[in-house]
Amino acid sequence: MSRMFVALVPPADVLAEVEQAVAPLRRNWPELTWVEPANRHITLAFLGDVPDEARRELSVRLARAAGHHEPIPLALGKAGTFTGPGRAITLWLSLRAPGRLARLAGSVAAGARRAGVGRPDERAYRPHFTLARSRKTAELAPLVEALSGFEGTPWDATSAQLFVSHLGPPLRYEPIEDYPLGRRG
Ligand code: 3AM
Predict the structure, then answer these.
(1) Are the CB atoms for 74 and 96 separated by under 8 Å?
(2) Among the atoms of ligand 1, which is closest to the Cα of residue 128?
(3) C-alpha 4 – ligand 1 centre gap (Å)
(4) pTM for the whole thing?
């Protein structure tokens, strides 16, 4: 049994650009829970604990779901916040083309469900790129402001990845499979 999720990871140059904008904020707000740069991603579907016996079927279903979607042009944009699982307030960067991402996320979640994995959606999918979490909304307001002009370099998302969460500490997300977009097998 492993705790898993499916996500997109921006290319290295985009991640470096984010880190350049975020590093000074991390230094000034050390009391927040920041996502380590190596762990940053765009979640498509949180799967929870996946039984080992479901893995093979899950791989087939996820590969098929990804194959049904063409590569998606994406770009990270200005920051926002919402209340996430466990009532923590999440600080994130927004995404261009959220409609196409939501459709891909829907297919991925549906594919996982057909493999008997995942959970009924508790809330509508909102594409986001998490930077930090806090218990107090007010703490995040200056960061939203500081990142209100962020405009990342666009890229084409060409594959989704299956991750295992190693809760640690340190928390580490391990990519274990890659599913190309737009390639029907
Ligand atoms: O970093 P983001 O916001 O993309 O919040 C967790 C993280 O999302 C989310 O899964 C991603 C990888 O861990 N997550 C964790 N527990 C969750 C839960 N119980 C959850 N999403 C929904 N329900």
Answers:
(1) yes
(2) 4
(3) 10
(4) 0.95
- Predicted confidence (pLDDT) per residue in 108-143, tens digit: 999 999 999 987 766 789 999 999 999 888 789 999
90 touches ligand 1 (CB under 6 Å):
yes
E strand or H helix that includes residue 77: strand 76-83
> Would the CB of 5 count as within 6 Å of ligand 1?
yes
Locate the ligand 1 atom nearest the alpha carbon of residue 43 and give its number. 4
Ligand 1 centroid to Cα of residue 5, in Å, is 8
Q: Which residues are catalytic?
A: 41, 128
Q: Is residue 94 within 6 Å of ligand 1 at its C-beta?
A: no
87: how many CB neighbours lie within 10 A of its CB?
7
Render the burial of 18-29: b for 16+ CB within 10 Å, e for the rest.
beebbeebbeeb
**Sheet strand arrangement including 42-50:** 42-50, 2-8, 159-166, 172-180
pLDDT tens by residue, 77-108: 999 999 877 788 999 999 987 889 999 999 99
For domain 2-180, the CATH class is alpha beta
